[in-house]
Amino acid sequence: MPESKETSKNTQRCGYVSVIGIPNAGKSTLVNTLVGSKVSIVSRKVQTTRSRILGIALHANAQIILIDTPGIFKAKKTLEKAMVNAALSSFEEADFIIHIIDSKAKNPVENNRALQKTLKDRNAQNVILVLNKIDKMEKTKLLALTQELNDAFSYKATFMISALNGKGVEDLAAYLSGNLPEGVWMYDQDQITDMPMRLMAAEITREKIYDLIHQEIPYSVFVKTESWENFDNGSVKISQVIYVQKESQKGILLGKGGAKIKAIGRAAREELEGILGTRTHLKTYVRVQENWTECAENYEMFGLHLPV
Ligand SMILES: Nc1nc2c(ncn2[C@@H]2O[C@H](COP(=O)(O)OP(=O)(O)OP(=O)(O)O)[C@@H](O)[C@H]2O)c(=O)[nH]1
Ligand SMILES: [Mg+2]
């Protein structure tokens, strides 16, 4: 009957899709591409995403609530353990899990074996395999890779995409929107994340540090937005503290005559101005706090928990 067909076509769908993978697979890039806007920071370095980040995408009649997660790996340090825990706990809320793989990386099959075992051990359902970075791969190699990965785990579907240039992402979005449970949308139709702007601003500065500092410093850095003032003329004044763990790291971050921190601040301010659509003053201060990775308060701020 045409009438009921019309009704079902218009039924709203809504659900959670967790995006998991080993570090650097392209999880955050995919979430941003699906949302159509940057909600999660991206870098060439591993362990960029540190907490669960929500990105809300609309496709057809569905609200796809994406959970970007930190990469899953054999964590040793306290912060790493908290990050991996955040990624693993996203399994529970998800209607679908996207297991994304950097197909151009060395030994993708071997490097994802432990994660496939975790999926099996946790009896994860509705897992979709997404082979990413196909812009850098030959098709024949991709088919062999698909076969090997599907032999090792029972995926519900496989997609080949480039999260960077968008190739194949529309097919993935169509699959998700067609298969999420029926239900009313949980967020306003123009909401793209649940992250407060203060946190987003801190993340943007952290991304610029990842971009501009080439030593190991990024892993020792924690950015906190200390204050945020809105002025009558529409402009905004934000002040942030960048915590590092050692005096020597502070020196690297500041650079010669403060040149590095200036460049980081400028890049962050320019991006913030684009997002806020208004004149933005950004002040950054660098402080040494040796044990910031052991302080529960710093974890809670980002929705993480200090591992016991
Ligand atoms: N060539 C190519 N590069 C990509 C693609 N997707 C992501 N990248 C790059 O891969 C790197 C890592 O991307 P992210 O999105 O930060 O990866 P991630 O999985 O979120 O990384 P972590 O948060 O550190 O676990 C960045 O340099 C991206 O630009 C793609 O489809 N093609
Ligand atoms: Mg990420």
What does it look like?
The protein is α/β, with parallel strands linked by helices. It folds into 2 domains: 2-179, P-loop containing nucleotide triphosphate hydrolases (Rossmann fold, 3-Layer(aba) Sandwich); 197-300, 2-Layer Sandwich (GMP Synthetase, Chain A, domain 3). The protein is 39% helix and 21% strand. The protein has 11 helices and 9 strands. It has helices at residues 2-10, 27-35, 78-93, 108-111, 113-121, 139-152, 169-179, 197-212, 247-254, 259-276, 296-300, and strands spanning 13-20, 53-59, 62-68, 96-102, 127-132, 157-160, 222-230, 236-244, 280-288. The strands form 2 sheets. The protein has a 6-stranded mixed β-sheet, sandwiched between helices. β7 and β8 form a beta hairpin. The radius of gyration is 20 Å and the shape is globular. The chain starts with a helix and ends in an 8-residue tail after the last helix. The model is unreliable at 1-7 (pLDDT under 50).
Low-pLDDT ranges? 1-7
Major sheet details = 6 strands, mixed
- Ends distance: 58 Å
CATH architecture identity of the largest domain:
3-Layer(aba) Sandwich
| Ligand list | guanosine-5'-triphosphate, magnesium ion
Supply the CATH superfamily name of the largest domain.
P-loop containing nucleotide triphosphate hydrolases
Quaternary structure state of the chains depicted: single chain
The topology string of helices and strands comes to HEHEEHEHHEHEHHEEHHEH
E-strand count: 9
Supply the number of helical segments.
11
Give the rounded overall mean pLDDT: 94
Strand order of the largest sheet: 2-3-1-4-5-6
Radius of gyration: 20 Å
| Tally of separate domains | 2
CATH topology of the largest domain: Rossmann fold
Shape: globular
CATH class of the largest domain: Alpha Beta
Q: What class, by secondary structure content?
A: alpha/beta
Helical residue percent band: 25-40%
Strand content: 15-25%
